[in-house]
Amino acid sequence: MQIIDLLPDNKKAIHQAAALLVRGFREHWPDAWPDMKAAMNEVQESFNAGRINRIATDDNGDVLGWIGGISEYKGNVWELHPLVVSPEHRKMGIGRALVADLEERIRERGGITIRLGTDDEDNMTSLGGVDLYRNVLEHLASIRNIKGHPYEFYQKLGFVIVGVVPDANGPGKPDIIMAKRIKR
Questions:
Q1: Is the pLDDT of residue 184 over 90?
Q2: Residue 31 pLDDT class (50, 70, 90 cuts)
Q3: Of 111, 135, 151, which residue constitutes the final position of a domain?
Q4: Nearest Cα to 155, choosing from 122, 184, 178?
Q5: Cα 96–176–79 angle (5° rounding)?
Q6: pTM above 0.90, yes or no
Q7: Contact by Cβ (8 Å): 80, 43
Q8: Domain co-membership, 21 together with 102
Q9: Residue 2's pLDDT is what?
């Protein structure tokens, strides 16, 4: 496996990255990128200024995973968006390697923090299906992973939960906000 830039002239990789978005999010977040048109739009937007695009490829140049970064706060903070690994290649260290690579690219640009939002639209955590406004901090302090939500993957990589946006995706469907400091 190698990790390289996803470039706007690599049509094969662009198509494969878009297909990964559709397949990779279908089970738990089907509305994220419901079809190739929506996914291709996401890939094309990722070539805008202030963005980082990296892909993990196999020896044949096929895309196994894609990660992106979006500069915010004058480059001090970068949003990790998106991260997807092909379903058949998960739990092989590809996501971990992509995140580490993105951290290095951000560090090279002087970034201090990486942040991300990880939605809970299917009651995968104890925050889903709940009126969080009644006591947001108490709910955050006692979060539990009920159905394999990816927030624990990010915690293993050093990210911490720094907040939540209640009802971000509709009533009882929050967005869990996580962040990680990158040491210079």
A1: no
A2: confident
A3: 111
A4: 178
A5: 55
A6: yes
A7: no
A8: yes
A9: 98
